[in-house]
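pinning this so it doesn't scroll away 📌
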Amino acid sequence: MEVSAIPLKEGDILGEMEGQIVKPAFRQTSIVMTAEALGDDSLLWRVRKADSADADLLWRWANDADVRGNSFSPEPVLYPEHAPWVEGKLSSINSATYIVELDNQAVGQVRYGKVGDTEAEIDISIAQTDRSLGYGVIALELTQALAMIDLGVSLVTGVVIAVNKASCTMFLRAGFKEAGPRTINGHECRVFHSSSGDA
């Protein structure tokens, strides 16, 4: 099964697959998502652009203890600071945030932020109750090529604190290639890349 998609506006539904993993591949200014069965044809995956109504949800996910523990800024996120920050990200042409839903229930978010003309860095989190199920891999596969088109980049990068083994494994399982190590704020990190040619 093939499903084509083009860059969309806030709140638009980007893809809807019953019982499918969607692996993106570039085709000029659109993408073609070739579906491979997950093994449970009762599942319905959807991806949509985040909007201001998601601010509370994103705040709760951001303050999850595991998320903060694996963050470069482990302090709790205060809502008065979070709300305008979210609005700034949603309105920025250099950022794209996607909500991944399973059977109409939000299970995670993936934000891509431009760090150069051709590269974007990834911030990803999965709801606490939905971890260890492979949903992070699916979220990356569902959103990667969409972000490349929305942001006009050809490379997406995940930077993970090295002790966060689960996230390192997630990027590798999603087909990312490991680059050299990096030190950020005193943390030893592993860096993972995926380019349009890898999709």
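📌 and the second one:
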Amino acid sequence: MRGRRGGRRPLRRVAMAGALALAACSGKLPGPTVGKPFPSYRVAALSGDTVSVASFKGKVVLLNLWATWCEPCRHETPYLESLYRKRKADGLEILGVSMDTGNPKAVDDFVKQFGVTYTVARDPQMRAMDLFHVMGLPASFLVDRSGVLRWMRYGPVSDTDHEFLDALETLLK
């Protein structure tokens, strides 16, 4: 005679097998890991050049993913621009990558409106969102002069973000 417990076991096994199969077949690449080399990612800059974090080897690179419609991104951009102007001579490069999928003119207008002088690129297919496991914008990744990820944030950075500033100072020394 089967009890209640015996009747549920096959269902648990099927559920567990299904969950394992989904995880194994998801095709997701591991996301970025602090202390590991930054994943390869190439994107077209507004200048027409193809750029990557590796393009700036020997520099400290802040990769910032953003969009014109993202309100926290709009607040973060003036700070990133001022940071770039202050620390470029110390070896800081910023690569701002727009995740906008619409009209490219919106990105051009945004860059002009905010006076952005650091390198800006477009990723209208939003490949970086999957590659770096980003669920929302902005997202920032700080990479050392050797191409190793040293700090990351899913969310905005600011001039009061001591964790970010400490990581940046350490890398720019």
